[in-house]
Design a protein that fits this description.
With 248 residues, the chain is mostly helical. It has one domain. It is built from eleven helices and four strands; from the N terminus they run ααβαααββαααβααα. The strands form two sheets. The chain has a two-stranded antiparallel ribbon. A two-stranded antiparallel ribbon has the order 2-3. Strand 2 and strand 3 form a beta hairpin. The chain is globular. The two termini are 18 Å apart. Bound molecules: iron/sulfur cluster. Iron/sulfur cluster binds next to loops. The site of iron/sulfur cluster has 10 residues, from loops.
Length: 248
């Protein structure tokens, strides 16, 4: 399904239904979260590609991590998948003197509780940047996937607080929002905490207690201390109820 072929509402509803069906089919199985996220990223990639046809080329490139000083938020499945990924790669990275958990903790000391504007001013880079590249690129959150720029000079100027406006790609932002909201709505229907969490703080929490994924799946809001509410949960829940498919 594509946003282009469907209205945004139809796209959201079909994706939300699809995520809910995956949840029902895989509830209690270890592949649930990975399957949900693979589908979310696949849907994001396909739709962004089709919507960007005919638009100017992006100016993002490997080695540029200017936007990786912005606050990153992620849903619980994204946090838990990243935590598993970090646990898996840590022994290999430690041999090269790279301690991702320590890097996240150092970043969190600077970013914990700091809002969007404060994050830009602090210029704290994401703990996953190494030589300008993202070491967790394959499992980076939707928030990272949804930021793409037509002008990297403007990104650099904004990062040093010289301008406010960055020509971000609208399709990337719109599709990220639709995919993430459809996922959150399906999580809400499944009875798990469906908020958006500040990445550094949530990841540290998840890395330090490997029982949290199971407890979250059982309905506990285990990442709540890192919750970011740009829009209140009540407003979002109301919107999800209005947007839900008639049979949902
Ligand atoms: S996770 Fe990767 S893409 Fe996202 S902010 Fe960090 S370095 Fe950048």
């Amino acid at each position: 399904m594509s946003v282009e072929a469907l209205s945004s509402l139809d796209f959201f509803q079909q994706l939300q239904t699809h995520f809910s069906q995956i949840w029902q089919a895989l509830r209690g199985r270890s592949e649930l979260l990975d399957t949900l996220l693979m589908r979310a990223w696949q849907s994001f990639d396909l739709n962004v590609a089709s919507q960007c046809e005919g638009l100017p080329a992006l100016d993002c490139h490997k080695g540029c991590a200017t936007c990786c000083t912005l606050r990153v938020t992620a849903t619980a499945p994204e946090v838990f998948m990243l935590a598993r990924f970090i646990r898996a790669v840590t022994p290999g990275l430690m041999k090269h003197g790279v301690d991702l958990r320590a890097q996240i903790a150092q970043a969190n000391d600077v970013t914990c509780g700091v809002g969007e504007a404060g994050r830009v001013a602090a210029r704290q880079r994401c703990p996953f940047i190494a030589q300008g590249a993202c070491v967790v690129y394959q499992v980076r959150p939707l928030a990272c996937r949804g930021l793409a720029s037509y002008d990297r000079k403007a990104c650099a100027q904004a990062a040093s607080c010289r301008i406010d406006e960055i020509p971000y790609s609208e399709p990337h932002m719109q599709v990220r929002s639709l995919v993430q909201n459809a996922l959150q709505s399906a999580m809400r229907d499944a009875g798990v905490a469906w908020g958006n969490y500040e990445l550094n703080q949530a990841l540290l929490t998840a890395l330090d207690d490997d029982t949290l994924e199971a407890r979250w799946l059982a309905g506990e809001d285990v990442l709540n201390a890192a919750l970011v509410e740009e829009v209140s949960a009540q407003e979002m829940a109301h919107a999800f109820d209005l947007l839900k498919p008639a049979h949902g």
